[in-house]
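Friendly challenge for the regulars: who can give me the structure tokens for this chain first? No prize, just bragging rights.
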Amino acid sequence: MSRPLRLWGERRPGPRPNLRRRSSSSGSRPSFSNGTHISGTGLVRRWPLFAAVILVVVVGWWGVMPVYREGGPLVADWFQVRDVTVSGASRVSYEDVLERLGLQSGETLFSVNATELADRLKSHPWIREAIVNRELFHTVAVTITERRPAAVLRTPSLNLLLDAEGRVLSALGEEDDPALPVLVGIDPKRLIQGEAQSRQVARAGIELASLVSQAVEGRLLVHAGNPDNLVAAVQGLRFQFGPSSFEEKWVRYQRLQPTIRARTDNGDSHFRSEIDLRYPGKVIVRERG
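First reply, four minutes later:
Bragging rights claimed.
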């Protein structure tokens, strides 16, 4: 028996789906789209678990404390500081390092503060940088970068050794270091006290000495009594630089240097010149008796 043909897209008769409208009432429990329900009784059931966890933590801590009291001295002995190693120091003595560290008896690798110890070391006038490391099991390792002498400040009462930043490294007394340039005209007391202006003038004088000494032989003397006009003297030449821009002024002089030096090389031992570089774009040469 043949069956009637059904066209594509034609609906076939069948039972209608049972569509029920879901109503929300005040008594129904809230639900999420995934079907999960929030139940107040679930939270209540978890309280015993929370209480049990807290009890275990309290009991565990109570049991650990006696062990810590008994084993604490033993652990401290395992990591007690017994050795201090120092590298990079030539002028700073080992005893000076220990004195600056100030380690107390019974210190351990856990009780010492490496940053604080490094700051203590940098308070030493010869120490520019310091690194402190803790090494198992009993060692504090210190690495030092020392400051380098750059000039001698000459005063009527004593000589001071300075670094490139104008910091006082040590007092030389009546001694001297002929390999270093000389500064004069700076109050030593203010420089020792760390006065910013005095240190700035000393730093400028050292910078000027370093620049001139690259092209002129002999020990340089820098007069820094007037901060607005630093004066350098070497081998019968006297340079007035003014307060700053040393490099640009020095380049101007070097263009005329062969002519000026030729007069000295000709045997004129009494030749004295003053080179005035204070004025922009000019090199003024004056003969001195």
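Residues 60 and 247 are 73 Å apart (CA to CA). The chain has two domains: 83-146, 149-288. Your move, everyone else.
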